[in-house]
Amino acid sequence: MPKRIRVGILTPSSNTALEPLTCALLASFNTQQSTYHITAHFSRFPVTTISLSPSGLAQFELAPILHAAELLAHAEVDIIGWSGTSAGWLGFDKDVTLCEEIEKVTGIKATTSVLALNKALELWGVKKLGLVTPYQADVQAKIAENYTGIGVLIGESMERHLGVVKNTDIAKTGEEVLDGLVGEVVGGGVDAVTTFCTNLVAAQRVEFWEKKYGVPLFDTVTTVVWDMLRECGVHAKELEGWGMIFQKG
């Protein structure tokens, strides 16, 4: 019998992309091996827009997120992951604090898309990062500033953004648009690229981009799953179809 592991995932309330993508990734993993059977369980808290306005920033206060985490704890999940990128503009310390508080409240280890991405950047030795997001210019600038602070350069030629505020509109971004944006940032001379938003329908396209451009592509729906599996002692190095990040599981 395969070992059963439950991963709990915190989800922005208006996100329509991360749940089907996460389930598809885990279904691939479960099909490709027989040692583990991983299931994902989701809990939402209110997020409808992405901006630096007071109301936009207030969506990521601790209390509602911790309440959602407590509900995941009712399912006795093995780990909790925040599948979201708000620490990109709020500061990475916000996710460190969030994980500490989740563990304090639930007794369950926690990670996030952004902290997982940063682990991947370190493992791969990335110093020049291509950044593809749906966000506004001021949000994009904060993300680039925060990465500069940890020694990862995101220059003008290395970033592209779409200027979208309403979260439900982000998931409407088509593959042809993402193909163009990824190609443009790769042309900026990067070590890796991140599709940085868990409401972008991008994770399924990662392997295509990696084969085309020869650089790792770290999607933030994928990064949190990768790190949750690692923290649960699950190595997915043989997983096919979801990117080279799993080679360093």
TrEMBL record:
InterPro entries the record matches: Iso_Racemase_Enz_sf, MaiA/AMDase
Pfam families in UniProt: Amdase
Domain of life: Eukaryota
Protein name: Putative Asp/Glu racemase
Organism: Hyaloscypha bicolor E
